[in-house]
Amino acid sequence: MRLLVTRPEPQGEQTASVLRAQGHDVVNAPLMRIETLDVDFGAGPWTAITVTSANAIRAIIPHRRRAEILALPMFVVGQRTAQAAREAGFANGTSADGDADGLAALIAKNLPPESVLLYLAGEDRKNDLAEMLRPAGISVHTIVVYRAAVEAALPEIALERLTAGTIDGVLHFSRRSAAAFVDTAQGRAGWDNSLKCHHFCLSMQVAEPLVQAGAKHIHVATAPDEASVLDLVGQG
């Protein structure tokens, strides 16, 4: 298939590389960029640390308190984040292999009541981990270490391919990037082609802007992870 990947870097190129290895023709067209924030974590002490994105791992690599953070037990949401943690030097990470609910259950199972968890988070997040762990008696200290900023437009090559009708499918991994796709493509030449092609979405929430825009062929992953989105492409 001829595909457009809208993820921010470096995840976008990682996904594009997997798809190319499977024989697809891929245009990498990030609609978001990740901005790292220089923040103060606070005094601590913390029982453990948790992250729900590899972007948070990358954000703390240059931080002045990296060594202190590396010494803490870590809980992560999935294997891609676990891999980034290992590459950054975290030797004692545990993965939930799932979503935020699975991560909260893993933390509650492994930490005693009155534990204090340092959560290094993104600015835009849909789950309240502190609320999820309150019944277990675990306090969550949330620090925003990165944010995702919307790019002003699709790259020219992506617009050219959409206009020419030479894109069969678009991969969407966040609601904001799906909305940005609609905003940057809507009204341009080739918009009808954008509506007619296949849209492979991480979740129904991600798909909402496309539904509202009138996209014809929307496919939603059975689980909110990259592997499930890639499975959709294989089925398409």
Task: Report what the structure shows.
This protein has 236 residues and is α/β, with parallel strands linked by helices. It folds into 2 domains: 2-31 and 151-235, Rossmann fold (3-Layer(aba) Sandwich); 35-149, Rossmann fold (3-Layer(aba) Sandwich). The protein is built from 11 helices and 11 strands. The chain has helices spanning 11-21, 54-60, 66-70, 79-88, 100-110, 129-133, 156-164, 175-185, 191-196, 204-213, 226-235; strands at 2-5, 25-28, 32-36, 48-51, 74-76, 93-95, 116-122, 139-150, 169-172, 198-201, 217-220. The strands form 2 sheets. A 6-stranded mixed β-sheet has the order 3-8-7-4-5-6, with helices on both faces. Strands 2-1-9-10-11 form a 5-stranded parallel β-sheet, sandwiched between helices. Helix 2 (54-60) runs parallel beside helix 4 and helix 8 runs parallel beside helix 10 (204-213). The longest helix is centred in the first third of the chain and has 11 residues, at 11-21. The model has no long low-confidence stretch (mean pLDDT 90).
Overall SS class: alpha/beta
- Tally of strands: 11
Task: Determine the CATH topology of the largest domain.
Answer: Rossmann fold
Q: Span from first to last CA?
A: 9 Å
What is the domain tally?
Answer: 2
CATH class of the largest domain: Alpha Beta
Largest β sheet strand count, sense and barrel closure: 6 strands, mixed
- Kindly provide the radius of gyration, computed on alpha-carbon positions and rounded to a whole number of angstroms: 19 Å
Strand arrangement, major sheet: 3-8-7-4-5-6
Order of helices and strands: EHEEEHHEHEHEHEHEHHEHEH
* Average predicted confidence as pLDDT: 90
**Assembly status:** single chain
Helix content: 40-55%
**Beta-strand content estimate:** 15-25%
Low-confidence stretches: none
Distinct helical segment count: 11
Specify the overall morphology: elongated
CATH architecture of the largest domain: 3-Layer(aba) Sandwich
